[in-house]
Amino acid sequence: MSIFVDENTKVIYQGLTGSQGRYYGLLNRDYGTKVVAGTNPRKAGEEVEGIPIYANIKEAVKATGAKASCIFIPAAGVQSAVLEAAEGGIEFIVAITEGVPAHDEAHFYNHLQNEFPQVQLLGPNCPGIISPGKCNIGITAGHIAKPGGPVGIVSRSGTLTYQALYELKEKGIGCTTCVGIGGDPVPGTSFIDCLKAFEEDSETQAVMMIGEIGGSAEEEAAEFIANNMTKPVSAYVAGVTAPPGKKMGHAGAIVSGGKGTAQAKMDALRAANVRVGLNPTEAGEHMVDIIAELTNK
Amino acid sequence: MDLFEYQGKQFFSQYGLPVSDGEITFTVEEAVEAAQRLGTPVMVKAQVHTGGRGKAGGVKFAATIEDVHEHASNIFGLNIKDHVVKRIWIERASDIAEEYYASFTLDRSAKKHLGMLSAEGGVEIETVAEENPEAIAKIWIDPTSGLTTEMAENWVKSANLPEQAAKGAVKILLDLYQAYVKGDADLVEINPLILTSDGDVHVLDAKVTLDGNSIFRHPEYAEFDKTQTRDERETTAHDRGLQYVGLDGTVGVIANGAGLAMATVDVVNQVGGAAANFLDIGGGANAEVMAGALEVINNDPEVKSIFINIFGGITRGEEVANGIIEALQNVDIEAPIVIRLDGTNADEGRSILKPHLSETLQMAPTMLEAAQQAVDLARKDNDK
Questions:
Q1: Contact check, Cβ <8 Å, B108/A185
Q2: pLDDT of A121-152, one tens digit each?
Q3: Which residues of B are catalytic?
Q4: What is the interface pTM, i.e. ipTM, of the complex?
Q5: Which of A213, A234, B233, B340 has the smallest number of Cβ neighbours within 10 A?
Q6: All domains of chain B, ordered by start, with CATH?
Q7: pLDDT per residue as tens digits for the range B148-168
Q8: In this structure, what are the phi and psi dihedrals at residue B46, rounded to the nearest 5 degrees?
């Protein structure tokens, strides 16, 4: 099993005719993802390497029955792309685009909550989601992930997600699903959404979580883990030594007014019995231990 | 993007908020002339991107032109928490009866806008929050429906603002919310918001942070980008479009991806060293970007060694390796370099690097080992 997506997930690419959308859309298809359509109002009727382009989501959904979409549209257009997808019947939206204004994110997040509660948005500013061997939506290099589980990964950072997948693969450990939730202030999918899904997923036996400074998402996740998770969790929080008041690349990664420090996050996670590594390698080693313990049980 | 107080007030006035007349000045003479035009008494206010100006002596009341001259002479060049004063805002003085606090920001947990209002203004809101949290009236606003007049009226009541200030405060809060939303601000804060002895509610200070991602809607914000406080290293990096944060250590860090760059800084510090910077070159890691990054690091005299930490995802190891080699041919690097290259086609990348390896260009198999090597090299240089 996997969470949010599987080998049957059909995906429409919003922005498939752009350079990024085309590049990753085709890579995703090569990986095995069912890339069934693209949208572009000015290029309806054309195709991209055999993938049909429709004028809008509604027509693409009608023709393909897809329930998922992936957004590769410049930041200025993301708000309307998300709303178009939800209104057109998409239930899982992956927004890869970075640089979306925080007010737009807050607006469409709440719009979805109010009008389309069944819709799950992932991102914006995220690497996407991969269920190794089944489906890869976004910009993750598919071959660095080993299929089969038993670990689920959820991460706020792109390259550290790859690092985690790779470290596990090197150690012979597979992954059920790896979700990059992104580093923006208002992520559509939270750590808790993923932890909840991993807890319910029969194939996932343990979860690796990668957080970073800023906000309180890791603390909230820790509370959820303490109260609701039976599966073991290992974690790493990036930015242990980050100075306050400086944005570390991601819009959301900033320690302000003494809040959002890595130390506070690590303390909260440790209190929830999460095995916290001081660097990504250590978190990977914790996961090796966890898997060994599970197998010996 | 942080705005200076005077920029914040100009921003506020576009949305109809009542601010005092004033002028921005860069010399003592300009300050005096501005005060003559405005008419004394005036406030002489240091413009810096940090708090605690008043305590540091950066905000003074001037009853006469002589006072303006004296205060401006003292304040120009004043160092407030490492921010040297280069601009002074001269503003017509207000008659303060009471001081309040008002702000809007995004509550990332609630994923709604958070408004805060307090009858106890003029002091740091963190202090009020700690000592007397009930004195702050909070309101959470759904961005899709916004702040209505009725909500603002109830909010003002719950903050216990006096009757005579209520009407003015409601108007200001509604306008401030418009400025926050339409202006794509991360934060708008008025502290203090004052009641004058004439019964007017008035904006006496302005703290505004704008969302740099919204610049496509607000091309005029490019002006504010030019007045951000950056050190020399940060300016060079910014001009090259690199995500750079200057730190105090001796190991220069280059990594691809914000998370990996943060982790690299962590690891350098954990093995007993200190990172000189955070630098994220993004996903690509081609020769041009790598050369730019190396130049930025090279300009930092404190850097004694460089740690390049690249994880190839879509970008393949051999592309990264070729990028590094090409960049090194174009930039004259003084400090020794340690490279850790992992991920897609890492072996191919490593074999490209191998013939180029030397005392000053080393390679390590893991992130931890590479960090240790870079820290040792930095130490060796120090012992010289």
A1: yes
A2: 999 999 999 999 999 999 998 989 999 889 99
A3: 101, 189
A4: 0.93
A5: B233
A6: 21-92 (3.30.1490.20), 96-225 (3.30.470.20), 232-383 (3.40.50.261)
A7: 999 999 999 999 999 999 999
A8: -65, 140
